[in-house]
User: Fold this.
Amino acid sequence: MNEYIGIDIGGTKCAVVRGSDKGKILGKRKFSTRDRDSTLEELFDSVKGLWTEETRAIGVSCGGPLDSRRGVILGPPNLPGWEEVHIVRMLQERFGVPAYLANDADACAVAEWRFGAGKGCRNMIFLTFGTGLGAGLILNGKLYPGACGMAGEVGHIRLYPGGHTGYGKAGSFEGYVSGGGIAQYGLGDAASLADRAFQGDPQARRLWEQTGQDLGRLLALLTDLLNPEMIVIGSIYARAGIYMEAAMNRILQEEALEASRKACRIVPAALGESLGDMAALGIAMAGRETDGT
Assistant:
């Protein structure tokens, strides 16, 4: 049986997992993210502790910016001090197997495509819709990273002339369709607003309706541009989608081309709490298959 190591690097916590090519988790280590050198040392120790002779490749999922082709982390805002970290080279030199790096949206797209809601699709989009907003693109049965690994940065597209700031741009989609954007309304975070909506709070319900409208505009844009079979939406949508769906579908129907809209299903992510683990493993598997090794 082929086995893989997945590394999920986050601003507050990291996880290293060992899994099979069938997507079964065989071992896992978790720890808090500290300074760069201490965190890298613990990552490498965790890989060593989970290593077996059946390990064929290592995949790394990390928030951007990064250069997936060179395997370099380029100073993500939630990882201070991580400028020009050649994580792929470090792993390959220490463990002697291929290693691959992808941003978290791309990695989650691969995971949902291989093991989750998008299994069997050839054209699928994954939207993170968490603290921030990004997209991973599966096109013609392959991950599409773009010329420099920056494809799918939909959070940077401007939705309004000004207003909430997300991805460094006032009025961007991330300023409205993300946890950070929702918090800028000043009414609480996404989790508390979902609870209030469940209890019937009209103010919370109106906010989710507005978020659903904004999400619908993004979905219409993606549907017309890429004509996917499915758009899988993670995190906040999986928890609060019920309060957004009516407004989202209304805008989608108004804005998107009818044939493209009817060909596309909008669904919540299916992997739940295991998504981060499966994302990193999926990058290891997909990279090795692409290399033909």
Q: What stands out?
A: The CA atoms of residues 93 and 99 lie 10 Å apart. Residues 202-226 form the longest helix (25 residues). The mean pLDDT is 93.
